[in-house]
Amino acid sequence: MLFYPTERIAVLVDGPNLYNTAKAMGFDVDFKRIHALFAEKGVLVRAFYYTTITTAPDEFAPLKPLIDFLGYNGWKMVTKPALEYTDAQ
User: Fold this and answer.
1) What is the rounded CA–CA span in Å between residue 71 and residue 51?
2) What's the rounded Cα separation, in Å, for the pair 78 and 83?
């Protein structure tokens, strides 16, 4: 990748799609390394990870360790509660 040193960079990750793709291909994603790579290539303006949360805020969520890790390593988490649709029957 060719970036100018003053180029402004934003990294936007669709969490569920990246997770499912990485799982299907059999590899892990190193978010700390991704953040560091883009930070050294230019001016990293933002690094966002978008995902849904399926549990109540006071319950333990399986994504909680990932959310904590990403927040600690410079990522901003953008979460929304998962919508549940029921069939009319």
Assistant:
1) 13
2) 15
pTM for the full predicted model: 0.81
The C-alpha angle with vertex 12 and arms to 11 and 13, in degrees rounded to 5, equals 115
CA-based R_g, the chain, Å = 16
Tell me the C-alpha distance between 68 and 71, whole Å: 5
pLDDT digits (tens, 9 = 90+) for 24-57: 999 999 999 999 999 999 999 999 999 988 766 6
Sheet holding 8-14, edge to edge: 8-14, 43-53, 76-81
User: What are the DSSP E strand ranges found in the chain?
Assistant: 8-14, 43-53, 76-81
What's the rounded mean pLDDT across residues 81-89? 76
CA distance linking residue 38 with residue 54, whole number of Å:
30
